[in-house]
Amino acid sequence: MLTLFGDLLHNFDTENPHSDRANVENDDSCPSDSESGVSGTDSNEHRSRLSCNNLSAVSNGEAIYEVVTKKLVSSLSSCGFNAEVEAVYRNDYTGIMSRAKLQSFCIYSKAMEVKCGGNSNVKYAWYGASKNEIRRIVSHGFGLPVDTQTHGQGVYLSPVDRPFESMKSASPDEDGLRHVLLCRVILGKIEVVPPFSKQCNPSCEEFDSGVDDLASPSKYIVWSSCMNTHILPEFVISFRASSYGRGDQRRSQSSRTPNSDWMPFPTLITTLSKFLPRDAIELIVKNHGDYKNRKITRQELIQLVRNIAGDKLLMAIIKSYRRKQIKAPLGNGLYNNQSKEIDFNLKNCL
Questions:
Q1: pTM strictly above 0.70
Q2: Long-range contact list for 106-115, CB < 8 A, 24+ apart?
């Protein structure tokens, strides 16, 4: 059973056991008719500004609006972004083909449950895209993934607590709004897919989907063959996002002394080159250059490096570097106080 919004929902659900939010928590693998928006009410009452017949607006007075909004805003805030939700839309699943998609998801979820010994491993996840692509997905399903993927050929979704990657993929529309899907995803048994893998299916019958890191995934990878049976888009969230004071962030960064294990970024790149393939290092170098040219923020750079290298490798390298520094006298500029260079703090990997 998913406990996605457990802390937020606990008090509400004990008072309202039949609420939408209770449904979100207690029926994760197969949505009920009322939960998916299929009911006797007029689904045209709140038609979406996204101009998609399958979507209806969720009132900001509804419980589900509050919990979805709070989750997105708080998760992006932890990544250094200020998000303001403009609207939440529910995928109605009222049409005959939409109902078929919903029932198909339920069937596959139950089948995965049998395959995996009772746990289909259904999770909530974000998917970001342009407004037009969001429309196409809601109306017709997922299309073929793009060729510029880093962890195999499939659909990449972000865990519900880590929406940063999906936000980056959600390019702003003509009004400056970004749009992300909140989906239920059948993961089954997951396997690690290394950076720059060409994998396009499970490596063997044992596995069903992929992640970039088992301990702390930032990507769920659903293979193309399963993308329209194992992913169920339930909500669309339209929002604005901006990073917290880039200039202030950089000024405070350049003058601070790290208070936990850390290492200078150029040294980190050199060390990573011993473990990662050349194309991965070239991508990190490019991202580092974008940071120095103020095209991305410090937090964005750190997140990109974490996605490529993985937290386990980064933590091991930084700890090893720090142990060597403790044994040796500190030279001038070790803490990089007067440089515009970035240090990589161990706390970034936790």
A1: no
A2: 106/29, 106/30, 106/31, 108/186, 108/229, 108/230, 109/29, 109/30, 109/186, 110/29, 110/30, 112/186, 112/188, 112/208, 113/29, 115/188, 115/208
